[in-house]
Fold each of these.
Amino acid sequence: MKFAALLKEFIKEINRNKYLYILALPGIIFLTIFAYVPMIGHVIAFKDYNFQKGIFGSPWAGFKHFQFFFGSRDWLIVTKNTLLLNVYFIVFSMITAIIMALLLNEVVSILKLKQKIFSN
């Protein structure tokens, strides 16, 4: 098929299901902003980053930074500490969330009890 015919078919498809595409638009925007845009920042790991030149103006370094990191003696300790801190954060966040949920549940129960007592 020629490009013009494909374009015409595509526009017809959009018009036929425009409400479904509108419904999907917030999810597509959310996914783009929070999943794909941050990937641009991962390029910094492969660059000799210069703040004044920006991400794309800085010279390319390749795997130089990774060779430096894994070539040092402390890379295993640094990696272990990073993973351990993330586990601590997850555990303490979970404990705090559970405690807050229980406390909030108790407040609601006390308010309902007071409502029953004073309504009689």
Amino acid sequence: MECALRHTKFVDSRDQSTESSGSAPRRQSAGVRGTVKNALRSGKTSTTTACSKSEKTTAPHSEKNTSVVKATICPQQHVYRRDRGRAQDAFRQYHERMIRVMCVDDHPLMREGIATVIRSHPDMSLIAEASNGREAIEAFRKHRPDVTLMDLRLPDMSGIDALVAIHSEFPDARVMILTTFEGDVEMRRALDKGARSYLLKSTPANELLDAVRDVHSGRKRIPPEIAAQIAEHVSEDPLTRREIEILQEMAGGHRNRAIGERLFIAEETVKVHIKHLMEKLGAKDRTDAVAIGVRRGIIRL
């Protein structure tokens, strides 16, 4: 397509050297600009986009060394800018639709594996990583991810505590627990504190990705095996705070008298609490009670 308007003015360099007045070249240059402005205002063309570049070349029909200044209005450039704007809008909308994920885990190999899975799908992007709870909180403040994959066991705090801290600042945060621990007590606590999903690290990659999409869309994702494990103990009486403290002391190898001294209660009171907690857990002895408490996530070794 030819340009709508081409206005060309030739200036003879030899004529310029013979001008008697020093202001003549300036007047000539002003004349070129004025001619271009008048052409743009004359309404001879319907397009309003001018080429940004002036071209200087030698006139093919002149024997003298002349400078050629071309002022051009190109409708092609208007089409190019319009198409480029549409492409930029489409690119921005594509990235806005992507699910922005943050991974929190203290094992580098685990983070790398999750990053590989996330980046292999075009609708997701891993935007941040953290190796402990404090880094997770700071990274969330900085990046505001759409979905966060949170490990349950972190060096400085539990993943549930980090979840609570994030929700205190960002109530709409979508956090998924991804862990190796299958304790029903921790599952219920995590879900009660606002986790949108609870998955085991043995979960296949495609199920993990589907869970991320579900959580991003506003739904919760609880696998059947996790729901069954929670339902198995839902009717049982939970341990009291004091009973959990005594069970934790039992796991440390302390006898009844030592437990009483550490918790500032009588030894007979310790015995009563141990009897009650063993009945609730269905344990045969102290060792069995500790093993059940660890397996269900009631205490940590």
Amino acid sequence: MQEINPLSQPQMELEAALKSLKPKSISIDPMELAYCAGRTVGRRSVWLWRAACIIMALIAAGACLKPANPPASVVVASKAPVMTPDVSNLRAEMQVINRGWNALPPVRGPGARPIHAADLF
């Protein structure tokens, strides 16, 4: 079989010249290669640790420099009178201790009325 060559004369000369070229032999030192790889990884981890330390230092400084919030004032509005420990309270306590809960008078709040079953239906 006859081979069809679509290349022109200058292209065939270039092809022959390129075929005659030999790649340069490269010697790779495994120790140098491992050293360079370790150095590159070490640089990355050092930057990572430095960045983490800087971020944590900024957070700590912000927490220390932040002014403390004043305690929120709580106002409790109540219609019931505030009872202070006095003689009448101590006397009532002694009556409860001696006679039980029945010793206390019935409590009637403002607007409170007893509920009967007939009121529900």
Amino acid sequence: MKDQHEPVSLDEYVLRAIPNSYQYYQANLEIPVALAAFQANRTRDGTGLSVFRESCFLDSAQAPSIVAHALPKRGDYYVVRLAVADLKLLSLTVLPDPKQDQPLGHALIPELGYIQYEKNKPKAKEVQRELAKLASAPGAIRFIPIASRQDA
């Protein structure tokens, strides 16, 4: 288990929580994870998009469930696992950003923050598209909400 204050290394994985909503995930599509899953929120993601470092959890197999249940909608999230090395190939960095009110290993991807998004929307959309592909790859989704709204 890594200390959440240590720098993020290329051999790590991060988890991204995606709200259980048709806007973010559509199981019937070739790429079910939508670009919106990596869209920064003006209020919450000004300086970077939130992710969680899998290596900071005692039991990495339980980390996706812990993340999903610790967030405001309590388990109503898909949680995807992304390799930091893949993020680096997209010119993204992951910086430790421990928070008292968040699960262990909170980190930010500064290049995907709202401020950066506003500066270069076309580039941001291109990166979001690649992240959606990575998040939709076989095995990337590590937690599926029980009350999936895909049939609604």
